[in-house]
Write a structure and sequence with these properties.
Distance between the termini: 40 Å
Low-confidence stretches: none
Order of helices and strands: HHHHHHH
Number of helices: 7
Length: 243
């Protein structure tokens, strides 16, 4: 899911129009549901196998993420994960959701005016029937896209909230199971299950962060002749006196 989120993020950078990636709302919903399913699976592995298999309970990827961030300082790992979760929920997800909502509203409000402009060009003989039909279809597709993005962004916010609850369940449930059923000390259970939870949380939050950034980039893009990197360099370097 990390590789897929990177591919989606890079795709949104290189499209020249949001309609070139019109399947994105469906992809957004599918990846969100996929992350939740994987979260449930890794939570089950952590709670059922954490006391016996240790840091290998949820796989090598979760272990490496947990050890890399937390190391020997579990508190540092908790702080880093908390910062990433706050950035994901408060800044990225909330901002992308608001942008999608506003874009959908403006797209729907401007749809009648755009349709009238197409009819005026057709009546004036500036375009033919085929071009008018193509433009009407593009206007309808744009409105449908922003409307779908508005709805799909709600799932992203719900996914961020669910991730925080799953993290709390992993830590609290792991401590209770480790101490009461497996005879582990509180410090041993805390070190094991906290590292596993941090690793699992990062494996889930990093793809969610990239997908949310991709959603924000896509809904803020307007139809241009070039992609985002080219357009950025052209506009940034068009005034050499600034440099």
């Amino acid at each position: 899911k990390i590789a897929l989120s990177v591919i989606i993020f890079l795709t949104t950078i290189y499209v020249t129009s949001p309609l070139e990636f019109s399947v994105f709302p469906t992809v957004l919903l599918a990846t969100t549901l996929g992350r939740l399913v994987l979260n449930v699976a890794t939570t089950r592995s952590i709670l059922t196998r954490g006391a016996t298999d240790g840091l290998d309970a949820a796989g090598g990827v979760v272990r490496r993420f947990g050890e890399f961030v937390a190391g020997d300082q579990v508190l540092v790992g908790i702080v880093v994960f908390g910062i990433i979760a706050v950035i994901q929920f408060v800044v990225i997800t909330k901002g992308a959701s608001r942008i999608s909502e506003v874009s959908a509203r403006f797209a729907l409000d401007g749809m009648p005016g755009k349709q009238m402009a197409v009819d005026a060009d057709l009546n004036a003989g500036l375009i033919d029937q085929m071009e008018a039909r193509r433009r009407r279809g593009e206007i309808a597709s744009q409105a449908d896209f922003y409307g779908a993005m508005d709805g799909a962004s709600k799932f992203v916010r719900g996914d961020a909230v669910a991730g925080v609850f799953i993290t709390a369940i992993n830590i609290v449930g792991g401590l209770l199971l480790g101490v009461t059923q497996h005879g582990m000390s509180l410090s041993e259970a805390g070190a094991t299950f906290t590292k596993l939870t941090i690793g699992d949380g990062l494996v889930s939050q990093i793809p969610a962060l990239l997908i949310s950034l991709a959603a924000g980039l896509l809904v803020t893009r307007s139809a241009q002749k070039s992609n985002l990197p080219v357009e950025f360099l052209q506009q940034l370097l068009c005034r050499p006196q600034v440099l």
